[in-house]
Amino acid sequence: MAMSNVGIPCRQLYIDGEWREPVKKNRIPIINPSTEEIIGDIPAATSEDVDIAVEAARKALARDDWGSTTGAQRAKYLRAIAAKVLERKSELATLESLDSGKTSFESAADMDDVAACFEYYADLAEALDSKRKTPVNLHLDSFKTYVLREPLGVVGLITPWNYPLLMATWKVAPALAAGCAAILKPSELASITCLELGEICREVGLPPGALNILTGWGPVAAAPLSSHPHVDKISFTGSVPTGTKIMTAAAQLVKPVTLELGGKSPIVVFDDIDNLDIAVEWALFGCFSNAGQVCSATSRLIIQESIASEFLDRLLLWTKNIKISDPLEEDCKLGPIVSSGQYEKVLKFISNAKNEGATILYGGERPEHLKKGYYVQPTIITDVNTSMEIWKEEVFGPVLCVKTFKTEEEAIELANDTKYGLASAIMSKDVERCERFTKAFHSGIIWINCSQPTFHQLPWGGKKRSGFGRDLGEWGLEKYLNIKQVTEYTSADAWAFYKSPSN
Ligand SMILES: NC(=O)C1=CN([C@@H]2O[C@H](COP(=O)(O)OP(=O)(O)OC[C@H]3O[C@@H](n4cnc5c(N)ncnc54)[C@H](O)[C@@H]3O)[C@@H](O)[C@H]2O)C=CC1
Ligand code: BAL
Ligand code: NA
């Protein structure tokens, strides 16, 4: 097994620019999914800590050192954070792998993306200064009007474990760029790197309270954010049931939410593709990267009947070639599932599929050479029908289900046959067909001749049960801004709607 000499830092909650022990002093063990061993612990916040953090955030907004900053000043903090992430890249990537089971390659790529995302929102923060006040010309002599873009206020950012620091960054970077004060609640299954973000913020001198980081159990440490009267918005990435709870709690206060939830995304492969292996690799990457724990994973392969048999043969060869190992081992391409709970859940999906009559073409079990750790073989399931659970529900593991089609109409019907609407992919060399599918797919993200490449300049989010609102790009910044109209009466004349008593 690959050994790591990176120590797990022991941290407290990051509140008001300092490390603070949680009021109830509880901690949660950190489990390395590759060894099943406890490798440290994280603080477990409760509603008492949430109250303290919200108060710190409110004070930060009221103080000049954060509340009156220009975008250019905030950009300096964001760039300093990006630089520190890169400085600590190798250590942070190892911590991410130890905590979540991500392969070292994927963790390192995440850290690059984290730094690039902070840099990107630094640019947008600077650009905000010239857009902060936009005059609107009504062509009236008696009125002067303009629109202000202001920070929305205190925002609660609740994030998952599949890309722990990256998903946090997708929310933290734009929230800080906008000038909000934020409370980040990462997943209890993988919080280490998010706590290190606290240390980085402390080191770069981010004003106290601008970002607070509370680790802990969702219902205890995150739910109070959704129902807190002084939290102005929730941005969430995670499961549909939790998203529903957050929206329900927030609705009581008419608090805006952004929800980035699950998916069961299709990848449609046509027989006109030039190169089978290239398409096979995208299908593989689309469902097995990050061990399939990707909200946008293209976990339904919809393949044209005429090439199905040849395609599946190649897919099988490529799948057998995937190195499954401790995520820190060189060339590892598939690490463990994040936790025992998620591991059991994935295996249950596979056994349910079998019981419902599907065929496990490959995988479906623990790899023989790995006796410990939450490892699942990359799994390909055929003989699937559209009423089966495996066709309908998000697995969040390396499990691909396959269906064939004959006509374009059938393909699009199968692709959209889902309650989710996050992403859709098409593989075809017919440009017009790709355009037709781009229009016909019911989702927020379309991939043409690829699956999963994600760029922080582009909007990220879905429709239907995959949620609403967008992370990333300029859309990811807008949602942390309050749009305020200002209307000034500039005439010296009376308004003269009422009859003046002095006449
Ligand atoms: N869209 C995505 O990227 C993700 C989807 N999922 C889906 O969710 C399934 C379950 O994974 P979980 O870790 O249990 O997801 P989850 O949705 O429960 O967890 C995500 C975040 O929500 C928090 N949370 C939990 N209960 C909460 C509550 N009542 N109020 C506010 N926040 C709460 C958690 O602490 C965590 O920070 C996965 O199998 C997968 O299908 C999970 C992670 C990411
Ligand atoms: N590609 C990362 C997006 C996600 O799984 O949330
Ligand atoms: Na962990």
What do you see in this structure?
InterPro entries: Ald_DH/histidinol_DH, Ald_DH_C, Ald_DH_CS_CYS, Ald_DH_CS_GLU, Ald_DH_N, Aldehyde_DH_dom. Forms homodimers. Pathway: Amine and polyamine biosynthesis; betaine biosynthesis via choline pathway; betaine from betaine aldehyde: step 1/1. Keywords: NAD, Oxidoreductase. With 503 residues, this protein is of the alpha/beta class. It has two domains: 272 residues, Aldehyde Dehydrogenase, Chain A, domain 1 (3-Layer(aba) Sandwich), CATH 3.40.605; 183 residues, 3-Layer(aba) Sandwich (Aldehyde Dehydrogenase, Chain A, domain 2). It is 39% helix and 20% strand. The strands form six sheets. It has a seven-stranded mixed beta sheet with strand order 14-15-16-13-12-18-19, with helices on both faces. It has a six-stranded mixed beta sheet with strand order 9-8-7-10-11-21, sandwiched between helices. It has a three-stranded antiparallel beta sheet with strand order 5-6-22. It binds 1,4-dihydronicotinamide adenine dinucleotide (NAI), beta-alanine and sodium ion.
Topology:
Elements: E1 13-15, E2 18-20, E3 27-32, E4 37-43, H1 47-62, H2 64-67, H3 71-87, H4 89-100, H5 104-131, E5 133-136, E6 143-151, E7 154-158, H6 164-178, E8 181-185, H7 192-203, E9 211-213, H8 218-226, E10 233-237, H9 240-251, E11 257-260, E12 266-269, H10 276-288, E13 300-304, H11 305-320, H12 340-355, E14 359-362, E15 379-382, H13 389-392, E16 399-405, H14 408-415, E17 420-421, E18 423-427, H15 431-440, E19 445-448, E20 463-464, E21 467-468, H16 473-478, E22 481-489
Parallel strand pairs: 7-8, 7-10, 8-9, 10-11, 12-13, 12-18, 13-16, 15-16, 18-19
Antiparallel strand pairs: 1-2, 3-4, 5-6, 6-22, 11-21, 14-15, 17-20
Bound molecules: 1,4-dihydronicotinamide adenine dinucleotide (NAI), beta-alanine and sodium ion.
